[in-house]
Write a structure and sequence with these properties.
- By secondary structure, the protein is of the alpha+beta class.
- The protein has a domain at 369-405.
- It has helices at 2-12, 48-57, 60-74, 96-102, 110-124, 202-205, 207-225, 248-261, 287-290, 292-306, 325-351, 373-384, 391-397; strands spanning 17-18, 27-28, 41-42, 78-83, 89-92, 126-132, 141-145, 150-153, 162-167, 170-175, 185-189, 232-236, 278-282, 360-364.
- Helix 3 (60-74) crosses helix 5, helix 3 (60-74) packs across helix 11 and helix 7 runs antiparallel to helix 10 (292-306).
């Protein structure tokens, strides 16, 4: 139990306390959301900077899994459709919404913006988007806010009172309409069973595996740097002359010889010559004894699964869940990427569309995804053979806009 707690403290760091600007009680990160009164600032329970450092920056498996998902998700185009009074949809090729999505702000283009959005979502479990513009008017720019700089001001029920953004010494509150729940801030979050306000990061679910993988890398690095440094003890044989001890000169000479001739990767595997009654006693545990490689692969698989990426696609051996890479890629797109993009589109439809009207809808263009082509083709074939469906019903069944009869 003590080792488990030590591991947690190392990965997540010390608990951080923030003071509510309303001068109410200090809220610690270990206070659950159901103990928070309306009007108090609620901060994320885990340290976002530790998530980013340990997973995205230091861990190659987590970094690659996050990048693989975010890059692929950002490549899916969001199409805009208008819906008339009869429910007939028509694709819009030119509209202010498409313009703002194509270039959300002067810094980010569409691909960069959505890739950063999906990165935040996976690392933090939370995404905050600010609509910049005149109050009540359609936004002219969209900006991503770093999750650890946003505090949710608790409101009555499950609707926040405001979102508080803090950077340096500057603080800005974005009010939330208590009736409609609308705000200039969009909060997209993963489901968290223990928090009413913040989403659950995939990094938290993979915390132990990420820590184990990082420690394995650090251990391996130390092994390479000290590969031929004797991992044991030199025992001096005792006799009537030395009594089992070395003289000061002998000790200094042997120590210098070991450091110069047997330390470092360039001297790895170099045999050591023992003389004068010296004997070598092995004291370390070998990588084979620790099952080092298998443990590292096991941690890698757990990390990949936490982010919804089949381990095969990351080159992790020992996982044969899918018979080939094509099946693994299909599973990645169907189970992870497409649902993530669809959820993002749903959130934008609920938040961004009402600024421009209520007869519009953003839809992911999944037809252009080559990996899904075979799966889509089988669906189209089955629908085409369904003689009991009208053309309008067939189009609706495969996700295409209805046409006027």
């Amino acid at each position: 139990m003590l080792a488990k707690q030590t591991l947690l403290n190392k990965f997540f760091g010390k608990k951080i306390e923030r003071k509510n600007i309303r001068n109410s009680q200090i809220l610690s990160n270990n206070i659950r959301s159901y103990m928070v009164m309306p009007g108090q600032a609620v901060w994320m329970e885990r340290d976002y900077s530790q998530f980013a450092k340990e997973a995205y920056i230091k861990n190659v498996i987590a970094n690659r899994a996050i990048e693989m998902v975010s890059t692929a998700a950002a490549s899916i185009k969001l199409e805009l459709y208008s819906i008339n009074s009869k429910g007939v949809r028509k694709e819009e090729l030119s509209h202010p919404i498409l313009k703002i999505l194509k270039k959300p702000n002067p810094v980010y283009a569409m691909g960069d913006f959505f890739q950063a959005l999906y990165n935040y979502y996976q690392i933090s479990g939370n995404v905050f988007i600010q609509a910049v513009g005149i109050k009540e008017a359609p936004p002219t720019e969209l900006h991503l806010l770093r999750p650890d700089r946003v505090a949710i001001i608790a409101g009555k029920g499950n609707i926040p009172e405001a979102y508080r953004y803090i950077t340096g010494n500057q603080t800005k509150d974005f009010a939330v309409d208590r009736i409609t729940g609308r705000s200039r801030i969009l909060h997209i979050r993963k489901f968290n069973p223990l928090n009413d306000w913040y989403g659950l990061s995939a990094v938290e679910a993979a915390a132990y595996s990420i820590d184990q993988h990082n420690q394995s890398g650090a251990w391996n690095q130390a092994l390479l740097q000290n590969g031929a440094r004797p991992s044991g003890a030199l025992v001096v044989g005792g006799d009537a002359n030395n009594g089992g001890k070395l003289s000061a000169d002998q000790y200094t000479r042997i120590k210098q010889q070991i450091e110069e001739q047997f330390s470092g990767y360039e001297n790895a595997g170099r045999p050591i010559l023992l003389e004068g009654g010296l004997d070598w006693k092995e004291m370390s545990i070998s990588p084979r004894d620790m099952d080092f490689v298998q443990a590292k692969h096991s941690s890698s698989r757990d990390i990949a699964l936490a982010f919804g990426v089949p381990p095969q696609l990351l080159g992790i051996p020992g996982d044969n869940t899918y018979s080939n890479l094509q099946e693994a890629r299909l599973a990645l797109w169907e189970q992870t990427i497409v649902p993530l993009v669809q959820r993002t589109a749903d959130s934008l439809n609920n938040w961004l569309i009402p600024f421009f009207g209520n007869n519009l809808e953003l839809v992911p263009d999944t037809d252009s995804i080559t990996v899904l082509a075979a799966s889509n083709q089988s669906i189209w074939d089955r629908v085409e053979k369904a003689s009991f469906l009208s053309d309008k019903e067939k189009r609706a069944a495969v996700g295409y806009p209805a046409v006027a009869e």
